[in-house]
UniProtKB/TrEMBL annotation:
Domain of life: Archaea
InterPro entries: Adenosylhomocyst_ase-like_sf, Adenosylhomocysteinase-like, Ado_hCys_hydrolase_NAD-bd, NAD(P)-bd_dom_sf, S-Ado-L-homoCys_hydrolase_CS
Record gene name: ahcY
Name this polypeptide is given: Adenosylhomocysteinase
Presence of keyword ATP-binding: no
Amino acid sequence: MEEFKVKDISLAEKGKGRIAWAEMQMKPLMLIREEFEKEKPLANMQISMALHVTKETAVLVRTLKAAGAKIAITSCNPLSTQDDVAAALAKEGINVFAWRNETEEEYWNNFNRILDFKPELIIDDGADLISLIHTKRTELISRIIGAAEETTTGIMRIKNMERENVLRFPVIDVNDADTKRLFDNHLGTAQSTFDALMRSCNILLCGKKIVIIGYGFCGSGLAKRAKGLGAEVIIVEVDPIKALSALMEGYRVMPMSEAAKIGDIFITVTGNKNVIDEKHFKLMKNGAILLNVGHFDVEINVKKLREIAKEIKQVNYCVEEFKLENKKLYLLAKGRLANLACAEGHPSEVM
């Protein structure tokens, strides 16, 4: 069995430095590590993890290792792995199988690789790993003690499994913890999203009409940050209470069919499919920018956008240009998590 598979093991030293920087910012987790090193609460436990392989995740991995666990990890997104961090973890003896720009086949192969280590605990982001165990790796179910899931999208999937009476082991709902919703979702998503937008597009946000689709913990944080940057904020939200809340906060609220006509930048954060669809592309103005910060690449109908485009160009490392009949639209990160694909994800402190 392979011990690891990363893009370039020679990047390990660079990754080690970045992990050290994250450790300086993540003081609560470092205090937990001190306790774990003494008590070894996870001695000889096998953990399989599908998380974004970033410097912040590496701090968690080191902490679990200090607790005595054996760890196999892959990325929960084909575009989010920081290759130097993955190399550093591999050098430290972690069974890591992840690299940036994985194909779909490589993505699922890596999931199966970490399950081949026969885990007793699962840590998931998006519920792909938990779903795979319940469908194609059912031989593992009897040995799994439990799992943790940390995203809104993943928890929606887990709750559906529970309603259908097919969930075979307990799952901790990390996403609904106050420390997750009020800080990671509300603050972290906002900062990392605009970091990605500025890095990849380098545009002036003052005066722009920014349409935020979804006004939950993530969307409300995005709206606040966009307003602080001088943008005119427009909210699209199907939940009437959340829509009313957005209105009472001073934002314009309207259906997507109306917002599509006037927006300069569109940010999806709903967990739902095709909230920006073909009919909306046709209404948008020339030069509109689209990005998604929901977990899966389903919120913007990228397949349809590719079908109707007359020409597609790669503008830079993270931006594609789609030439339609009478305009150009710009898509970040192929419709995947822009804050991780175009930047570094959330600030270390909030993780």
